[in-house]
Amino acid sequence: MKISKSQQNLKNISFENVSLNDFLSLENNMNLPISLFTNSNCLNTLNKIIFFDTDFKNVELKAIESLNVLESIHILYCINLNSDFIQQIISFTKPFKLKSLFMKTKIQIRLLESLLQKSCDYLENIGFKLSMYKSGQLEPIINQCTKIRYFELRRTNNQMSFPALNLIKNFGKTLNYLSIEFCRYSHVSSNDIRLTSSNIFLKLGEILPSRLEYLSLSLMINPRDFNTFLFKIRNIIIKKLLIENLMKEGDLMPYIKEHVMKEKRVRYLAINGGVSENDIKEF
């Protein structure tokens, strides 16, 4: 904290892996080190705040409104984004310029709706576990956000695969980075993972924008579905393509060689497993 206060012309600040209440004794019983934002070193220079894996329990955010040139706030995998936290944001007289929201835990749907209504003009990056919510809950809320560039989707299931695809479709031409990750958990059956992955692959190629900077897929990939997917995206330019096959069977390389390497539509390619030294040289 003393280091932050001593900085001149501070432009960016990041809180990582902390409970903000840990700073109580350093801030004369104020709830949060964000009170340092009222310091003259920050008022007219600080333009970016990043919260990563931060605990917002009993946090007072009002000092953020004192910042005159703040351009973006990024909330990444934080906890206790509860009613008290979001009500403070709603009460701001200035815009709450939330640029990134990656959810580690579920935010109640009414609170999430209020938060996005306050921030939808600024939000560009969003990620969450789709299995946190029921089908039909998220689409009307997130579709308010018309500037989404980065979408990270984790732990979906077969019931939620079509709502997920609808979100991707509705993000339209603004979408530039897409990550779909299906980590395997003991309470999810292999059949559900396979079916979800298949549904995503069969439809995803029809709704992607014409150009992507980044596409990362970690799914149970059936080679036949993968071949169909690559054929459907044959006219899409992808700068970075990352593939992880959670199904430890089936060879994807023949289809990658045919549709990706031969056509040279991907600049950077990363594949987890099943790649030989000759394959790398060929690429």
What is the strand and helix layout of this fold?
Blueprint (H helix, E strand, L loop, with lengths): L1 H5 L5 E5 L23 H4 L4 E5 L19 E7 L4 H8 L7 E6 L5 H11 L5 E5 L9 H4 L7 E5 L3 H14 L5 E5 L8 H15 L6 E9 L3 H10 L4 E9 L7 H9 L4 E7 L4 H6 L1
Parallel strand pairs: 1-2, 2-3, 3-4, 4-5, 5-6, 6-7, 7-8, 8-9, 9-10
Helix pairs in contact: 3-4, 6-7, 7-8, 8-9
Q: What's the order of the H and E elements?
A: HEHEEHEHEHEHEHEHEHEH
Instruction: Give Rg in angstroms.
Output: 22 Å
What do the pLDDT scores average to? 82
- Strand order across the biggest sheet? 1-2-3-4-5-6-7-8-9-10
**Number of DSSP helical runs:** 10
**Tally of DSSP β-strands:** 10
- Judged by helices, strands and strand pairing, the structural class is alpha/beta
Number of domains: 2
Q: What shape does the CA trace take? A: elongated
Query: What can be said about the biggest beta sheet?
Result: 10 strands, parallel
Proportion of helical residues: 25-40%
- C-alpha end-to-end distance: 49 Å
Strand content: 15-25%
Distinctive features:
283 residues; alpha/beta; 2 domains; 22% strand
What can you see in these coordinates?
The chain is α/β, with parallel strands linked by helices. It has 2 domains: 1-116, no CATH class; 124-245. 30% of the residues lie in helices and 22% in strands. It contains 10 helices and 10 strands. Strands 1-2-3-4-5-6-7-8-9-10 form a 10-stranded parallel sheet, covered by helices on one side.
